[in-house]
Amino acid sequence: MNSIYSEKQRDLFVIDQYKFRFHKFLKNNIERCCCCKKTCKSYIHLNSDNNDVH
């Protein structure tokens, strides 16, 4: 997983050509990030080290 900056200087995470942006915090300080494409409904969970959480 790579991270890049958006045009508005926000973190974006790139996984297999898909970009994810921060959506909200879940319990235990886990971040939920959703896909940047409006028609895509996928999301990922990241812990404080920006590692994928299952």
TrEMBL record:
User: Mind telling me which Pfam families this protein's record contains?
Assistant: FLYWCH
Entry's Gene Ontology molecular function annotations:
zinc ion binding
Keywords, A to Z?
Metal-binding, Zinc, Zinc-finger
Q: What is the protein name stated in its UniProt record? A: FLYWCH-type domain-containing protein
Query: Per the database record, which ranges form the FLYWCH-type domain?
Result: 6-53
Q: Which organism is it from?
A: Aphis craccivora
